[in-house]
Write a structure and sequence with these properties.
2 strands; globular; single chain; two-stranded antiparallel ribbon; about 5% strand; Rhomboid-like fold
Length: about 240
């Protein structure tokens, strides 16, 4: 008999909800303004190495993740954020989740910037999309929920840890053989690598803090002393005998 696949129950957490709203709004506003009103929000908010290096438009390292090139790109990233991000936020809380999310996103943007400057193939080629952060979430999901079952291509059930490795392999080969999307794929891999680094360092730091706490507690035992309530002690003292 075929084994039934137990799927993860769906939930929507607060930080993920606001990220989804912001990403969808960013796509809608940028596409509408640029295509119908002749604006250039892509040039202002997208990650363009020349603008960041020459004009110090550092906000692009954050805002580029709220823009997307087309509806398919937008839909896939929003679906991944919805299903993976909510699980991770429920585990960590909103503050740590957002810190991790933007750390992966900014790290992916910095790697793209450095590669464009170093390779000098297209300093005016913008990068948009939340893929760097999404691949960071994949890393975290594969580590913390590795035994859970996901549907690859919505058809094939597999464990989350295998799903992450397959996507990493696809990005690796894309970066090797694609001329147009190669650097973006490397940036996605950078999002995965930075996510792993974040988790490794934060875990080591927490372990060190726990060890310090245990050490201070054990060393503090020698300073403990018994405090006796004088009133209680007086009650326990035997009363003097009297003769009648």
């Amino acid at each position: 008999m075929a084994k039934a696949v137990k799927m993860v129950p769906f939930r929507l957490t607060p930080a993920v909800k606001y990220l989804l709203i912001a990403i969808f709004a960013g796509f809608l506003i940028q596409q509408t303004a640029d295509q119908f009103f002749g604006a250039n929000l892509l040039g202002v908010l997208g990650l363009i190495p020349a603008a960041l290096v020459n004009q110090a438009w550092v906000w692009q390292l954050v805002t580029y993740a709220f823009l997307h090139g087309d509806p398919t790109h937008l839909f896939l990233n929003m679906m991944m954020l919805l299903f993976l991000g909510s699980e991770i936020e429920a585990l960590w809380g909103a503050r740590r989740f957002l810190t991790y999310y933007f750390f992966c996103s900014i790290s992916a943007g910095l790697v793209y910037l450095l590669l464009q400057v170093w390779i000098t193939q297209g300093l005016h080629t913008p990068m948009v999309g939340a893929s760097g952060a999404i691949y960071g979430l994949l890393t975290a999901y594969g580590i913390f929920f590795g035994e859970r079952t996901l549907l690859f291509m919505l058809l094939f059930p597999m464990k989350a840890k295998h799903f992450v490795w397959i996507l990493a392999g696809l990005e690796f080969f894309t970066s090797l053989y694609s001329r147009q999307g190669g650097l973006s794929s490397v940036a996605h891999l950078a999002g995965m690598a930075s996510g792993f680094l974040f988790l490794y360092v934060s875990t080591k730091w927490r372990q060190r803090q726990t060890q310090k706490s245990r050490t201070s507690k054990s060393s503090g035992k020698s300073h403990l002393r018994l405090v006796v309530d004088p009133a209680e002690e007086a009650e326990k003292k035997p009363k003097p005998k009297t003769w009648h």
